[in-house]
């Protein structure tokens, strides 16, 4: 298989150039790829005004594409574990766990924090199989999970998300399109656009990959207000998105009460393997959620204590952070994330 690669430079910084993979130009032979390259690249650039042609196109073999490192964690399930850190130029925004499931077709679960990461995930799939990518399932709205989706849209996949996601993303998109390139570097963000959701999930449903199926379950507000879990029924692997954090401090952007409630109701039957949104895959429900349950319970208790003492928000945040010190061990980014969580929890629990 041959792949169309475009040399593209930032319109605002013409010296800063990147290679973009355009799946619409995929072909069985180099000749077929080259024949269609020019119009496909021209169309694509017209839709990505942040980039300009930086020296034309070339057609390369699958093995030449830069690809994410994947690990097969269950039969046909491949996981890329993101960096355990906040967004930075060093990690290029590649902090979320990204997975794909190979059936007769391929489903991607979370698409990465930039166009470039989505392309590297697409390349990793192509290095294992040439089956069509039928679905990209977004577990929730956060930019480190969704910003790579457009490349799969161009490859013909259906983008699937909780029905609440598009509006939640739309409210934040403008600010993310400024803040994320600032955090990871403009070149690492080149060509990134937010993909439209093609299929909105409003109730539990099953999607078919031909010989295996995935069960999608929307979750009431918890980590965010648009979380959705994905269960591979064949292996009992549950993809939780950021409903489960391992090692990276959980960030609260939905409902603390709802999140603790979700943790308190293990799925029936219990999943055998849990793939969290950040950190390693874990066998067994209790092992997967116990550290996070401790953290979120401590956050709730410390916030209630601050409210009981009538502290104003500005004094409550340091008080909550201090009270949570005993549960800080093993959580990367504890201080910064906990301060933000304290403010969010304060606003929610004020009304208890
Ligand atoms: Zn998240």
From TrEMBL:
One Pfam family recorded for the sequence: Lactamase_B
Superkingdom, taxonomy of origin: Bacteria
Residues annotated as domain Metallo-beta-lactamase: 95-278
Segments crossing the lipid bilayer: none
Similarity comment text for this entry: Belongs to the metallo-beta-lactamase superfamily. Class-B beta-lactamase family.
Protein name: Quinoprotein relay system zinc metallohydrolase 2
Natural source organism: Paracoccus simplex
